[in-house]
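One such shown below:
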Amino acid sequence: MIRMTETVLTEIVDHARQDAPLEVCGYLGAKDGIIMVCYRMKNIDVSGEHFTLDPEEQFSVLKDMKKKGVKLTAVYHSHPATPARPSEEDIRLAFDPDILYVIVSLMNGKESVKVFRIIGSHAEPEDIEILEEKFQPLLNLKGVTCPMNFVKIKVKLEQIQTGQIIEVILDDGEPMRNVPRSIKEEGHKIIKVEKLQDNSFLLQIQKGV
């Protein structure tokens, strides 16, 4: 059984869609047994039929995982025009039985995500549980100037669990220039930015590891 946040599932499907008809690839990291971090990576083959990860990028991602206390749990890639099952090449190149393989198929315009454990020449399907992430109460920071708006966001993020999401409203101008940058520098992720009718902005922020 693999447990994955809804945000990561959305991330890998979006990656597959955006780069189709080329195959995409990346690493998935887990903390406390839950996959909650997605690392989009380059397919240096630039192919719609196979992929190869960039060794330098692999090293960089693994270093970042170690720094954040995240465990490499799965490799994902897409099949733009074939089913979500390992190809002969996928099986041949799978060297680590402790790593899971997540495949996103876009065949016939329909998305399908499946997980496999590959041992030797056998690919065994694994169950997948998608964890819905609950939004915290809206944090309305209209009229709150920098840096106090970021301080309030930081305090709120310290009160929730890794992978959870908060919604924040910020004024346009200096708050939108400064706060998103500070959030990313702290290791968190902005998953949505929406301009509202009064020209303020709604941000959805996922707590990083």
User: Anything to note?
Assistant: The chain is about 25% helix and 35% strand.
